[in-house]
Write a structure and sequence with these properties.
Layout lengths: L16 H18 L4 H15 L6 H4 L1 H11 L7 H16 L2 H8 L2 H9 L4 H13 L8 H6 L3 H14 L12 H20 L11 H10 L11 H9 L7 H4 L7 H13 L11 H17 L4 H11 L16 H9 L5 H14 L4 H8 L1 H10 L11 H6 L13 H6 L9 H17 L5 H6 L2 H14 L1 H5 L7 H7 L9
Helix pairs in contact: 1-2, 1-4, 2-5, 4-5, 5-8, 7-8, 8-11, 10-11, 10-12, 11-13, 12-13, 13-16, 15-16, 16-19, 18-19, 20-21, 24-26
InterPro entries: Gua_nucleotide_exch_fac_Ric8
Keywords: Chaperone, Guanine-nucleotide releasing factor
Family: Belongs to the synembryn family.
Length: about 500
């Protein structure tokens, strides 16, 4: 139960919210000089001010320079670790969050230096509040972050805080579940780490000592059914801006170089639903891109064992080539589905980049790994030229144990053994498939027709009879359309190739 307000701070009849807020601040300002409030009265007054400050309406005195200064002086009293100081920090956190202009006021009053100093050995409750305050002032202020990191030893204080959190997930303390406040404090500190490493550009070694703590948290935390949620997402974000090559023995320990990469692949695997082939949550598209980006950073390191493992896990296997790629439920198949998913605009580009880099950034290898159907959009949108020899049968066979169709990624022998795709279909269904191929040829109009046709001619020949006389676009009479294949035949550009 909250302590009663001191008599001078209690509401009086007829007084509105604005007047009461001003009187609470007057009481707190007087207390800074006269120390006439008890600890419990001071805490109660600040708590009342905090409740008022949750709604900015009629709270202008809180957001003025005098208001921020008064509350800040109570929050950063030297050597303080008491409920009153904590209530003052909560008031400040609300003010800086709700009214952005107060952030520069906070900086101008010199409070960031006091916040950085107080962060050292802070309790979990104070860590949460101090990390949030410093996070907020990284936006739209003139704060000198480099000075806070070096002169105020903020980098060291954050590293020590992360070390304390890491102990919760390892050793003798692993059995103890972190409290809700532990989780909140960790999340705020991780967000602060990301912002500092993002805005302080000239420090490549920034937080490099914290890498083992971040990885310990990543490995030790139990994964929920959908892992991409705080604090796991914040750990991944924090690692993105760090040079893992500079912390090689921590990122890829000699005793088990794959321990951290396996964890990231496990998180990726659990984040995409295996049955549907679509994200298990809409949060995938919001939080999946940082995970893919981190995996790309790992691919770019010189660790060959790690890259070989990622290729094995994320690129289609030989067994998957018994059918067109992307049709199964393996992680590799689901990644391919994400690479052109309309429901995942944020992640599909990142996934394509990852698969391209796993293919050694080689166009021909990329197409043979994932199939031209999945590779074409990425290559065309980035103006990457496609070698003509990519579509030749000899090239298709050179990188695989069996010749494959570079369009679908399926082995040619499996393709030949497949049943007629038009068997058992109604005329309407055949017509729809024919129109789908019409669009396909339009989309890939720049691909040499003989080469493209070589690997799709069985489907085209079956659809051709349906497309030419029965196209619903022609039947409407509104527009005249001509299939690119039909046009190529008439112009003498179409060439039948031997098997």
């Amino acid at each position: 139960m909250s302590s009663p307000l001191p008599p001078a701070a209690r509401s009086v009849p007829g007084e509105n919210k604005l007047q009461h807020v001003q009187r609470l601040l007057d009481v707190l300002r007087t207390d800074l000089d006269e120390k006439n409030l008890s600890s419990s009265e001071r805490a109660a007054t600040l708590e009342k001010l905090k409740v008022y400050g949750r709604d900015p309406k009629q709270c202008d005195p809180i957001f003025s320079k005098e208001g921020i200064e008064t509350i800040g002086e109570h929050g950063f009293v030297d050597g303080s670790d008491c409920p009153a100081a904590r209530e003052a920090l909560r008031c400040l956190a609300n003010a800086l969050l709700l009214v952005p202009r107060t952030r520069q006021i906070f900086v101008d009053l010199g409070f960031p230096v006091k916040a950085a100093a107080k962060f050292a050995n802070a309790s979990v409750d104070d860590e949460f509040l101090l990390a949030r305050l410093m996070l907020l002032i990284t936006y739209g202020t003139t704060v000198d972050l480099e000075s806070l990191l070096s002169e105020q030893k903020l980098e060291q204080s954050i590293d020590e805080a992360l070390a304390r959190h890491a102990k919760t997930y390892s050793g003798d303390e692993k059995a103890r579940s972190p409290s809700a406040m532990d989780e909140m404090a960790l999340s705020e500190t991780l967000k602060l780490v990301f912002n500092l490493s993002h805005f302080v550009k000239d420090r490549e070694d920034l937080f490099i000592k914290s890498v083992p703590h971040l990885l310990a948290i990543l490995r030790g935390r139990e994964l929920p059914p959908f892992p991409l949620q705080p604090p796991i997402t914040f750990v991944i974000n924090a690692l993105i801006n760090m040079d893992l090559s500079a912390s090689k023995d921590d990122a890829f320990p000699p005793s088990d170089p794959l321990c951290n990469v396996r964890r990231l692949v496990e998180i990726l695997d659990k984040s995409i639903d295996a049955n549907l082939g679509f994200p298990a949550s809409t949060s995938w598209d919001e939080n999946g891109a940082p995970l893919i980006t981190l995996l790309r950073r790992i691919v770019q390191t010189p660790e060959e064992e790690v890259k070989s493992y990622l290729k094995k896990q994320l690129l289609p296997s030989e067994e998957e080539r018994n059918q067109p790629l992307g049709k199964g439920t393996s992680l590799a198949a689901r990644l391919l589905q994400q690479s052109n998913s309309a429901s995942s605009p944020n992640t599909r580009e990142s996934v394509s980049y990852l698969l391209f880099e796993l293919s050694n950034s080689n166009v021909q290898e990329f197409i043979l790994n994932v199939g031209y159907g999945y590779a074409s959009g990425f290559l065309v949108s980035h103006n990457i030229p496609i070698p003509t020899e990519t579509f030749q049968a000899d090239a298709a066979a050179s990188s695989a144990s069996k010749p494959i169709n570079p369009i679908t990624g399926q082995t040619l022998e499996s393709e030949q053994a497949a049943a007629d795709p038009f068997e058992g279909k109604t005329e309407e269904e055949k017509e729809r498939e024919a129109e789908r191929l019409f669009v396909l040829f339009e989309r890939h109009g720049n691909t040499p027709i003989p080469l493209f046709y070589r690997f799709t001619r069985r489907l085209v020949s079956r659809a051709w009879a349906n497309l030419r006389p029965r196209s619903r676009l022609k039947k409407t009479g509104v527009v005249k359309v001509k299939n690119p294949v039909e046009q190529a035949v008439e112009e003498g550009r179409f060439q039948e190739l031997d098997d």
